[in-house]
């Protein structure tokens, strides 16, 4: 049975399932591109920024961050470093508040993925139920074992196509959604680690400046 025949056999619910699958593929490609770009640049940039700041080269630190403002970690660091002589507590709060503001960027499309994962199997089941209703509606009680019984059997087989299609869409989307969720959790841990290092450097610098004053 060809793909077109399978699609036709699945019934009307195959259209929303097709839309879900195309949407999922488009969003997955966008998220893969996002995470590949982050993993390729962030480690190098952040280590360079921390090294410059440790050397008290604040100007070069800010310049390096502004050149990479497309990265979430750069925006988080800038939010704190651009404050005018903050206390260590204010510096920490600036890091934390900006990190919270970046969470929607890191979790982007997660709700859409969850919706597709939840609805695709239900749509597939609905297609199967509708297919079974149509199959049995065409069966005459007095014709059990007759020619129409074979048609009902074929109809049931075809009706199951929609359930299988819904499960395939859900499983495919679930695999990538869980992968992106793992990337997000690692990114949050990574932001906390390097944010803590920057906070420690600032605290030492602040205390040193206070003693000199």
TrEMBL record:
<protein>
    <submittedName>
        <fullName>MotA/TolQ/ExbB proton channel family protein</fullName>
    </submittedName>
</protein>
<comment type="similarity">
    <text>Belongs to the exbB/tolQ family.</text>
</comment>
<keyword id="KW-0653">Protein transport</keyword>
<dbReference type="Pfam" id="PF01618">
    <property type="entry name" value="MotA_ExbB"/>
</dbReference>
<dbReference type="InterPro" id="IPR050790">
    <property type="entry name" value="ExbB/TolQ_transport"/>
</dbReference>
<feature type="transmembrane region" description="Helical">
    <location>
        <begin position="159"/>
        <end position="177"/>
    </location>
</feature>
<keyword id="KW-0813">Transport</keyword>
<keyword id="KW-0472">Membrane</keyword>
<keyword id="KW-1133">Transmembrane helix</keyword>
<feature type="domain" description="MotA/TolQ/ExbB proton channel">
    <location>
        <begin position="70"/>
        <end position="191"/>
    </location>
</feature>
<dbReference type="InterPro" id="IPR002898">
    <property type="entry name" value="MotA_ExbB_proton_chnl"/>
</dbReference>
<keyword id="KW-0812">Transmembrane</keyword>
<keyword id="KW-1003">Cell membrane</keyword>
<feature type="transmembrane region" description="Helical">
    <location>
        <begin position="116"/>
        <end position="139"/>
    </location>
</feature>
<feature type="transmembrane region" description="Helical">
    <location>
        <begin position="6"/>
        <end position="29"/>
    </location>
</feature>
